[in-house]
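Subject: design request, 466 residues
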């Protein structure tokens, strides 16, 4: 075959890229193409920081391609139209691409495959939707049996050798738009690109201190750096989920000590949750707009309380720190996501869809499947969700997962001088202490916008009715 298009979407990498490998094995010339889709870039769910991360990732991928004699071809517009132009320009015989699973992606891809020969290969999941099913062929809706079936499949393995081509032939006559400028919202905490993703994976699993060994113990601590910080790279395929799972599996089966496998098993379990939510979105696309279960909930949807939650001005320090972290950095610790989501849906009785959209508008790792799954899990409306009567107490959650207030003080500098014994309930400080440390509740930091005990009882009644 003379020419093939490698249509890049959520696989901004060269290593362990099955679409690239297939194109290289069958075609003399490869056109690495990324199409800037205005429908996605202007979506109400788009996030400036996530777009900035994507654009920086495109630049990093282009640099890697140029090292191999190739380059990234950028087009903008409706993907079907742009692919039509490219096939007419180049005479390419086939398109290789990794599938995607949102409702929009599936509609888009169906339109393309009706017009052109497309080879779908690889997956943003470890085991793609359709590969983990019950014995009757139906999808799982409960995580534990899904996990057992997932683990019963052949374990992903690290490739025996580097499969990245030494050279990639891309005709220089093909026109391309300039690489998009990286907006200033690019987060310095998340340098984009495959090289950084691989570096983080090695640091997490293979470095001398091997943080993965303590992952099971430290992953919920807000004041520790106990997580892999790889979610943005998995989101855009700068690291393949299959490669990450293979690294975890290798660690499980060859630990330094028996205890070390616990952390790797726990981290692998998080990757399985990621797959689970992709499968749920694929088989039940209505979850993006509807409760997976439970009847109609009588949400209060107070716009002023929602605004306070978005701004990190609820008066509950751990909730506010989480929301400030989100807006300022584009990322949030997973435990903090659960605390903030529980507060919105249970304490304030605000529709989870409001929170889901706000997260997508701010998260650098915002993923339709994982974000929706996480919100519906916490709200008690999703597949295999937390019981509706599980309502996080924001004070006790803060005390348990940020006992000395390190996380809170980092993101709420107005509370920097509050003593440890009051950091999770600053409204209990005496007036004299508030004045002494220049943190007057209701002035320098808001008083709680609700009474948690009363809000909990209200939520139990409303959810019980549903």
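Subject: RE: design request

Done. Sequence follows.
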């Amino acid at each position: 075959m003379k020419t093939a298009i490698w249509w890049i979407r959520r696989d901004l990498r060269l290593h362990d890229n099955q679409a690239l490998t297939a194109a290289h094995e069958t075609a003399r010339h490869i056109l690495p193409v990324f199409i800037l889709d205005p429908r996605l870039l202007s979506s109400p769910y788009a996030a400036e920081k996530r777009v900035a991360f994507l654009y920086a990732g495109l630049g990093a991928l282009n640099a890697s391609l140029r090292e191999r004699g190739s380059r990234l071809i950028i087009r903008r517009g409706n993907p079907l139209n742009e692919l039509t132009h490219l096939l007419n320009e180049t005479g390419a015989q086939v398109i290789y691409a990794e599938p995607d699973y949102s409702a929009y992606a599936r509609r888009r891809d169906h339109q393309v495959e009706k017009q052109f020969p497309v080879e779908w290969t690889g997956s943003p999941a470890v085991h793609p939707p359709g590969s983990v099913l019950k014995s009757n062929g139906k999808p799982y809706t409960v995580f534990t049996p899904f996990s057992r079936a997932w683990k019963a499949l052949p374990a992903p393995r690290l490739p025996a050798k580097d499969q990245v081509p030494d050279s990639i032939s891309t005709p220089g006559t093909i026109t391309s738009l300039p690489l998009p400028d990286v907006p200033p919202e690019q987060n310095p905490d998340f340098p984009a690109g495959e090289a950084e993703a691989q570096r983080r994976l090695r640091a997490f699993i293979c470095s001398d201190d091997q943080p993965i060994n303590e992952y099971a113990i430290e992953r919920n601590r807000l004041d520790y750096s106990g997580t892999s910080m790889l979610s943005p790279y998995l989101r855009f395929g700068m690291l393949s989920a299959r490669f990450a799972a293979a690294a975890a599996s290798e660690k499980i089966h060859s630990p330094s000590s028996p205890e070390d496998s616990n952390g790797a098993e726990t981290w692998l379990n998080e990757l399985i949750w990621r797959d689970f939510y992709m499968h749920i979105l694929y088989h039940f696309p209505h979850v993006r707009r509807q409760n997976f279960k439970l009847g109609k909930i009588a949400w209060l949807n107070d716009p002023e309380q929602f605004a306070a939650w978005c701004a990190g001005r609820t008066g509950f320090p751990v909730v506010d720190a989480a929301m400030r972290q989100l807006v300022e950095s584009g990322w949030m610790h997973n435990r903090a996501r659960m605390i903030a989501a529980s507060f919105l849906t249970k304490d304030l009785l605000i529709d989870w869809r409001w929170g889901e959209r706000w997260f997508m508008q701010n998260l650098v790792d915002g993923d339709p499947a994982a974000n929706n799954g996480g919100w519906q899990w916490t709200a008690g409306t999703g597949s295999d969700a937390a019981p509706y009567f599980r309502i996080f107490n924001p004070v006790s959650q803060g005390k348990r997962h940020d006992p000395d207030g390190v996380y809170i003080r980092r993101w709420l500098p107005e509370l920097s001088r509050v003593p440890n014994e009051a950091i999770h309930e600053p409204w209990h400080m005496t007036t004299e202490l508030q004045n002494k440390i220049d943190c007057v509740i209701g002035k320098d930091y808001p008083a709680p916008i609700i009474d948690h005990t009363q809000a909990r009882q209200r939520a139990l009644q409303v959810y019980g009715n549903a």
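The chain has three domains: 3-122, 124-160+193-283, 303-465.
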